[in-house]
Amino acid sequence: MSSLSPSSSPWRSPYRALREPGVLRRDILASLVVFLVALPLCVGVAVASGVPAELGLVTGIVGGLVVGCLPGSALQVSGPAAGLTVLVFEAVREFGLSMLGAIVLLTGALQIALGLLRCGRWFRAISVSVVQGMLAGIGLVLIFGQLYTMAGAKQPLSGMDKITGVPGLLADTVGDTTALTAAAVGLGTIAVLVLWPKLPSAARVVPAPLAAVALATAVTAGFGLDVANVSVRGMVDAIQPPGFGDLADLGSVAVLGTVLAFTLIASAESLFSAAAVDRMHDGPRTHYDKELVAQGVGNTVCGVLGALPMTAVIVRSSANVNAGARTPLSRILHGAWLLLFAVLLPAALGIIPLAALAGVLVHAGCKLIPVKEIVPLARTHRGEAVVLAVTAIAIVVTNMFEGVILGLVLAVAKSAWDTSHVHVDVRELTDGRMVVTLTGNATFLRLPRILETLEAMPQDRPIELDLTAVRHLDHACRTTLENWALRHNDSGTEAVRMKMLPTVEVKSKSETGDDARSETRATAKAEA
């Protein structure tokens, strides 16, 4: 990618490119491509989240027509994302569908507040390993959960039950003709998704998710297969704005925890997606605070409509860029095409097999697991690989919120450990004096190692503790070292001397043999 030119300044209007010949046509064509990619994903994410399929389209429409018009990122596309499927499913199961709108509404309000407070850039400081672990955990739960939908069976509630129940699911599927038929439709959908990128470019004009779902629908209808289809309620019936009772329930601890999880994950995924999209084009760069506000406005509108939460989605965004989009017009138009489809062809959703959508989401779940990055990461940054694995496993074993929190805590602890490197050097001078030199960052995390060396020093020899090369000395470490210097040497031996940049008083035992304490100021040699 070429360097950012003045013409691609973030202060430039993103629509100025429409004046150039051919840009309007390319944006319209790109919007159609994004629409065809988004349509099956919006429906599939909604069904997997346990909500009416129409609500997925509502979120996609808001992502195009509302968020698409707001400043932030010019080319990334927002809508319902597979990354929030597990969390939404758990929220709907625990609090009910009517409460979902209130949760999404508060999530949007928090995102707006964070954006106005200029916190957008700080979401980029979240450890990449935590985000990858989060997506991997979501992917695992999504894959194993959708295996049950592919076979027409009911999903277990917990992630571990979904995994441990797979052998029984396979046994039940093999012995049931209806389940076997549904599983075949789902596996066929996955096969199309895997093989589609290998076809000639002329065939790949149709996006793989749309082609896979269309072929599965055609085969199911053509052969009259007995499989479950998407349930259609109608757009108006599906929209359920939150009531006053739902808004009042937002004060409970459990609901607030879910809101925080929504806010953290949706914001981080959107801003990470924005950074990835920026690397794909030479157009205007993302303004992260404005993008966070835009996502908040979109989620607020979705909350008012009782729809799914939204994030920026890298699959749709990359399709938008690769299709040649140059301005936000393409993402706005993709929302318009979704609206026209929802208004004119809502019954078309009712012929889509659930197994086909489950296959699309199993494939999407597999792509959430960073298989290619795990082995190189384990070789070069073993600690980061541990953070990734622990986050993913915690999400599967517990839930999304607890897994992400554990990952963040582990990442912070690892960072603190990595930045507290200290080297302890011991040498003996010709006059018998022992000199212990510390270099690096002396923090409480390294105290066990430091004390292990210091306590092994002889108590009948003059000792000098040189801290002048320490870049950082925290309070706990400083206090502990002063106490060690106070008590270490025998009463008949010269007191431990400490060299450090700030002057510090160290009380030592007197050399007369009694326990009376004499005030001995440690030598503090200030060095330029």
UniProtKB/TrEMBL annotation:
Pfam families according to UniProt: Sulfate_transp
Top-level lineage group: Bacteria
Membrane topology: Multi-pass membrane protein
Positions of the UniProt region annotated as Disordered: 506-528
InterPro entries listed in its UniProt record: SLC26A/SulP_dom (IPR011547), SLC26A/SulP_fam (IPR001902)
A single Gene Ontology CC term: membrane
Keyword annotations: Membrane, Transmembrane, Transmembrane helix
Protein name (Swiss-Prot/TrEMBL): Sulfate transporter
Subcellular location: Membrane
Coiled coil: none
Naturally occurring in which organism (per UniProt): Streptomyces venezuelae
Subcellular location, principal: membrane
Domain SLC26A/SulP transporter: 24-391
Transmembrane segments: 28-48, 55-75, 95-117, 129-148, 177-196, 208-230, 250-272, 292-315, 335-364, 385-413
Gene Ontology biological-process annotations: transmembrane transport
Keyword Membrane: yes
